[in-house]
Amino acid sequence: MAEKRCYYEVLGISRTATEVEITKAYRSLAKQYHPDRNVGDDEAKAKYAEVDEAYSVLNDESKRARYDRHGHAGVQGGAAPGGGGVDLGDIFGGLGDLIEGMFGGRRGGGARGPRRGESIQAVLDLELLEAATGVSKTFTVPSEQICRECGGTGAKTGTQPAQCRRCRGQKFEVVNTGFGFAERVRCRGCSGRGVVITDPCPACRGAGRVEAREQVTVNVPPGVDTGMRFTYPAAGHAGDPGAPRGDLELVIRVREDKTFERDGHNLICQCPISFARAALGGPVELTALTGEKVTVDVPKGAQSHTAVVRVPGHGMPNLDDPKRKGDLLVQLVVETPTKLSAEQEQLFRKLAELEGTTVPAPRKGMFSRLKDLVTGDGDQKES
Ligand SMILES: [Zn+2]
Ligand SMILES: [Zn+2]
Questions:
Q1: Any idea which ligand is nearest the CA of 173?
Q2: Which of 265, 342, 345, 347 is the most buried (most CB within 10 A)?
């Protein structure tokens, strides 16, 4: 089959089409290419299938969103003619293979064949340190899987499902749409299976599916941020027997850290320094996010809150190239001593004497420098 056409193009609508517009376009095209009106016309048959497939995706809000984001690969499976297609694992650059030792079933499934399983969406909460270093997480994913007892047929072992009388095993029935033409829809007597269960499997009570709780291990690469999505193919719900499983779609959420604030690839933190260190300058040591000790050079005459020292390479790693890291921006905060030793008090008194009662003139723009460096939220308004 030639390259798949854009679904919007197939239905002749714009990407911003409303639900009503989509349905209207579908109705009109389905009528035009309907097999009942084009008996023996293979081209019309193919068109009808194409229109049907486009509609099944664009009429489903979540599928449409996935299609808008990832194109055909995002909604691959389903009613895809010819099967095959793009593997999501490739799109996500090697991340797809990070589910370890899981489930053989890859996508496939022929045209109009068994339905692919639904995807599972989940949020993965991470600490900032885990986002910085990368982490391996194992958790339980509840999903629907094919009942092993009956192999998904729903029929008790030793019995066979009976042919559906409503559709005589055809899986479809013809209904009047009220739009002046009849339409083939999934049989309501057997939900499109073509068979009905007369003697249900005790393990799944005839559903053919059971609830499973599977352990999934994912390796989160360093540098992830809140809102990033990772798709792990074939870790979702089971599809119809013989069809591929859905995917597991993880959305990353990085928790706020008590000490470090993230600003893209940079990290921001505060470092308390003494009066003397602020006045004289010199090195102070602090602990970076990863626990590494870093030395910060306090400039002579550093002003509390406005003095920011940049420590290169101690920010967040770049997702594409973890060796490339952002910077750590250290905001220096001068702490006023509350307890003085006798000697310290004597020295401060001496200092006060030297300073006399001279009051410095008020200054303007104290925060501008910090804002430049820290893309200011302006919330560190103090003193
Ligand atoms: Zn069963
Ligand atoms: Zn039926």
A1: 2
A2: 265
